[in-house]
Amino acid sequence: LEQCEFTATRRSGPGGQHRNRVETAVILRHRPSGVSAEANEKRSQEANRRMALHRLRVRLAVEVRAEPRDTPSALWQSRAKGGRVRVNSLHADYPALLAEALDQLAANDFELSTAAAQLKVSGTQLANLLRMSTAAWILLNQERQSRGLGVLK
């Protein structure tokens, strides 16, 4: 959040006069990467800020790559017990897990089974984690297609 530029603005839509008079819409832009996210569906600026931050973290997870770890992180291990990844896409841990999964996939040329083995989960569980984010699923299939691999459904 320290690396983000915060903008509050007005948006049209349901909510009546309150929505048109108060700047409750929130736009967050991550300065180092230029990635931004917006939320404006709630009447509370604070609620919209939290949602915009979550969306920004998911977009950063999809768009920015880092070197993967040699072993899964403590967060990953706590969420991937018994070979199953347990997290809701709206949970605060989801963006970090998604980033770790995509970093591992990128390091393994988007071979799902290889990345899943390194993360100690099944390929199906890894695919299900990625499927929670439309942008991540599209990225996965674009990268696989560019490498001559089959598109996942």
Q: Which descriptors apply to this entry?
A:
153 residues; mainly alpha; 3-stranded antiparallel β-sheet; 7 helices; 3 strands
Major β-sheet strand ordering? 1-2-3
Largest sheet: 3 strands, antiparallel
**Which structural category fits the helices and strands?**
mainly alpha
The overall pLDDT, averaged over residues, is 91
- The value of Rg in angstroms is 18 Å
Helical residues, percent: 40-55%
User: Rough shape?
Assistant: elongated
Q: How many beta strands in the DSSP annotation? A: 3
Number of helices: 7
Proportion of beta-strand residues: 5-15%
The termini sit apart by 35 Å
Report on the structure:
The structure is a single chain. By secondary structure, the protein is mainly alpha-helical. The chain has helices at about 15-20, 45-65, 75-80, 95-105, 110-120, 125-130, 135-145; strands at about 5-10, 25-30, 35-40. The chain has a three-stranded antiparallel beta sheet with strand order 1-2-3. Helix 2 (about 45-65) packs parallel to helix 4, helix 4 crosses helix 5 (about 110-120) and helix 5 (about 110-120) crosses helix 6. The chain is elongated, with a radius of gyration of 18 Å. The two termini are about 35 Å apart. The model has no long low-confidence stretch (mean pLDDT about 90).
